[in-house]
Amino acid sequence: MTTEEGKTLYTLIIFSENVAGLLNEITSVFTRRQINIESLNVSASSIEGLHRYTITCWSDECTIKKVNKQIEKKIGVVRSNFFTSTEIYIQEVALFKLSTPKILEHGEISRLIRLHAGKIVEVNPTYAIVTIEGMTNEILSLFHQLMEWDCVLQYVRSGAIAITKDTRELLDEYLVERKKRFLASK
Questions:
Q1: CA 186/CA 176 separation, integer angstroms
Q2: Which of 181, 183, 94, 184 is nearest to 146 (CA)?
Q3: How far apart are CA 63 and CA 89, in angstroms?
Q4: Helix (H) or strand (E) holding 71
Q5: Stated pTM of the model
Q6: DSSP classification of residue 74
Q7: In a domain, 166, yes or no
Q8: Which end of the chain has the least Cβ crowding within 10 Å, N or C?
């Protein structure tokens, strides 16, 4: 995905040890280069003791390579890779708090929710809570359509979560290689 300025949406997937202050160090790399982070998600990874950062930003290839190298140099970072939208699968989750009276008044709102595979998870006389998961553009499409009905009381969207489409797991290969180097140095 490319913007008018010729920049591409990149997703960095970073694995690190759980070190206090590391998130600040990583985000400061973006700040120094005046790159706005579009989305940031941090959670435990599938490998015990490692955390996974998923960061999306608009950049050019030369700059994102430099950012990636700077992040990999941080103490506590195990591995960092960057990807374009064709190399990964991305999902987000959104929650909407909608006006129940407006939903009851306009059946089209319920149809929109179903059309976007949204789920109504709670309803009371004042509001209904709807959840949807999907690609950013799908979620934003529903948001804009619901705004036209003036029924949105609250809206929140998670940061992107992503997995690579590659059949190899780059982190696993890296950890095996690192272990071999460590054992060879003994």
A1: 16
A2: 94
A3: 23
A4: helix 61-72
A5: 0.83
A6: S
A7: no
A8: C
